[in-house]
Design brief:
Elements: H1 2-7, E1 24-27, E2 30-34, H2 35-38, H3 46-51
Antiparallel strand pairs: 1-2
Length: about 50
């Protein structure tokens, strides 16, 4: 979350608790990263790269 705020100060970052190990990053209602799809958490900088 801090990494996103550093790269995109105007971003509205929200954590929504869930269950089952789901980790998704959504930008403008589109999923740009899904742990369920990739089977892993993103590497450092990976989400920021996908947001650009």
């Amino acid at each position: 979350m801090d990494e996103i705020k550093e790269g995109f100060a105007e971003a509205n970052v929200e954590i929504i608790e869930g269950s089952g190990g789901v980790f998704e990053v959504t930008v403008d209602d589109s999923i740009i990263y899904s742990k369920k799809e990739t089977g892993r958490f993103p590497e450092k900088g990976e989400v920021i790269s996908l947001m650009k």
